[in-house]
Amino acid sequence: MHSEENTYSVLSRFLPSKIDQGSSNALLDRWAEEVTTINNYTFDNGVTGLGWLIAFLIQREHIGGNVDEILEDVDDNIYKFTIKSILSEPTNVDQLLELVTFYQQRFTDGIANHNFYRKFSHFECMKLLTEKLNAFLSEVPVDDENLCTKINILLKYSYLAESGIIETLVEEAFYSQIEKLIIYFNGTEPTRFTEGLMISLLKFLVCVKQYQNSHWTERITKAYLDLKMALNEKYKNASTIAIWEKVCFSIPQPRLRYEEDQSYWQSEKGKHLLFILYTNVRSFELSCN
């Protein structure tokens, strides 16, 4: 693929709300044409990301059209790719979560006249994907290697819980893993905390606050604040930590201002984080004032 664009960079052209609509639409058209000429189903540069992005932009009225008609062939091809991904070993958690993100958008975009059979297919794929993720959660231990991956799954589950789509499917795995992760963080010495581990702890706190469990929130908030005090100013200039902290402590209405961290949002890391926040934190908005 010759384009330097990807799902996250194209998304960032439409967000925040003050955009050049004409140039953004032209960029989307060019990128979509490139994606559809290659046999690539990745989220970053392929059909799965393109399908999600089109559905997301239609839902937010950045572009127009009937999402079921536009994505008819995309839906069919991603369904086949989903089944292949579920049957594959070893488990590729990142790929499964990207597919969950695609189906959460297709299943919850609020279109009243969705084709019933298409929506049923999306739901069945979501069930199979969460079953595979549940198996990973239960079979793989909580350790340094798997910690971030497990928290990414739980954060996604907390985002979906209020929608009623999959809560009964993931409840048992969700509860047991939360308790194990609390024990893990409480047993980790402050000197072992890297920037990545700090971000994981903040994402974990976002997860339980979003799930609205006051007991978990109190315990994990204390753990984070104690850790922040112990580490003093070690990570005070870490932009990604600062963004997650702003999001975490503004739930249930997380609103960030684009201008406050403009250079960060324009970076590749910032563009990817923007996608993560919109697809894992309910009611998140990046405003441009």
The 3D shape can be described as: globular
Say how many strands there are: 2
Structural class: mainly alpha
| Order of helix and strand elements from N to C terminus | HHHHHHHHHHHHEHHE
Please report which band the strand proportion falls in: under 5%, 5-15%, 15-25%, 25-35%, 35-45% or over 45%.
under 5%
In whole angstroms, the N-to-C terminal distance is: 36 Å
What is the number of helices? 14
Oligomer: single chain
Gyration radius, in Å: 19 Å
Q: Kindly give the count of domains.
A: 2
Structural summary, described in words:
The protein has 289 residues and is an all-alpha fold. The chain has two domains: 1-139; 145-289. It is 66% helix and 2% strand. It has a two-stranded parallel sheet with strand order 1-2. The mean pLDDT is 90.
List the helices and strands and how they pair.
Layout: H1 7-14, H2 21-35, H3 47-59, H4 67-70, H5 72-87, H6 93-107, H7 116-139, H8 147-161, H9 167-186, H10 195-211, H11 214-231, H12 239-248, E1 255-257, H13 262-265, H14 268-280, E2 285-287
Question: In brief, what are we looking at here?
Answer:
The protein is mostly helical and 289 residues long. It has 14 helices and 2 strands, in the order H-H-H-H-H-H-H-H-H-H-H-H-E-H-H-E.
